[in-house]
Amino acid sequence: MIIKYYESVKTSNYMSKNWKRNLIGGLSFTSMLFIFQACYGTPHDVGYDVLVEGTVKSKTTGQPIKGIKVAPYNDIQQVFTDEYGNFSFYILADYSIGLRFEDVDSTLNGGFASKDTVLTNLTSQMFVNIALDSK
Amino acid sequence: MIRLINGALFRKFKQIETEVHELNYLFWECTTRCNLNCLHCGSDCAKDSKFQDMPLADFLAALDTIESKPAHFTVVLTGGEPLLRKDIETCGREIRKRGMRWSMVSNGLLYDKEMHNKLLNAGMGALTFSLDGLQQNHNWLRNNKNSFAKVDLAIDLAVGSPRLNFDVVTCVNKRNVTELPDIYTYLLNKGVKAWRLFTIVPIGRATENEDLFLTDQQFKETLDFIANMRKLNQLDVKFSCEGFVGKYESKVRDSGFFCRAGINIGSILIDGSISACPNIDRSFAQGSIYKDNFYQIWQTKFEAFRNREWTKTGECKNCGDYKDCQGNGMHYWHGNKENVLTCHNHKLKNALLE
After folding, report:
1. Running DSSP on this structure, what letter comes out for residue B200?
2. Which residues in chain B (305-344) have CB-CB distances under 8 A to chain A?
3. Domain presence at residue B3
4. Would you say the ipTM is above 0.85?
5. Which domain CATH number covers B222?
């Protein structure tokens, strides 16, 4: 009971201080008060990105495929699927994300045709399961 | 009148920030190994550090003690040179898994296309490279003849990634102070959006070299340069938050001087010590992640950071600007802490008298 009371007082003090903090911060006419950088640090990361995760399998066998290159359109980023066919990467959030799945290791892990897909209605985490046709 | 009201509001704001002391910026000194041997290094980093890199699991255990994380909570990987860690990508991914952002300060020597790709995939959202002049001066300070060529390529990669909140930092010294306009043009041509300038703290290896420290007049010229470049609005140029600069405050930065060390900024240092910015004297450590609960230490200790009355000594004792400065940046208090190592405000006042 005492602990609960203490917690509620602590929370209400915090809320009250936070309210004052926002008000006074806003009144002092600077937008950089809450987003700062330490002198020997980096800027804050205030960007929006999406975690894209998924699995690539063979349409014929249903088995995961290793070594498939997964690359967003028009971007330097790329990843390769692991032995379980899994991949994951963060990318800048946009209206949509176009992805190309490409077999670039010749016949090392089987031969597969490339495939494209476009992710829309983005949330912070997107799952993509892709099945590739054999060549 | 508006300036006076603003000043009073800003002081009140700092007071409330100190009371709330919301942790939203955490340095992790993940290694003290370094692939350079910079003349100005404050931490005396070397190729063979006496410390092993901190195991990721140890850092994550400390991170997991944090009970409430604000929206823009950022972990800043620093060193030494963070890219010397083989598991840097895993470090980043594990931080993101915990709902936190991460960023990195690097000398750029190992930052190539493959590294860039790996770190973006791991969710890196902000990045800072050091550039201390054009080729000759940068290589001199960095003590490496290939350093400029490498960071030049690294900057191109960072600029090409809209995901990154990226900036360049420059340590202004006697050799590069006259080169600042050329560095400005170079960065502008590169497409860099933000440039932070700071001076060198007389600690570590830096104390051995007089060329590293600006005269009072050169310091004033540096601030004049920043103020003039800010008016052009082509590049976000600013003086770092290292110290209080009196009448220049509103001309060289977006907001007034506020040393947030121990107020919003914490750190986990290479040996597990819990402190604020890594360049602050190690005697200010508040505990150790190997003995204490990190977040409990953050919430209950840090008295010397949150009440700076103890800095009213030496030349700060009777200073008329103390209420706005509060002893300058915490990293200017070393050794016996009887006097501030550098007073930027005095340097400016001296320059105006010359």
Report:
1. P
2. 329, 331
3. no
4. yes
5. 3.20.20.70
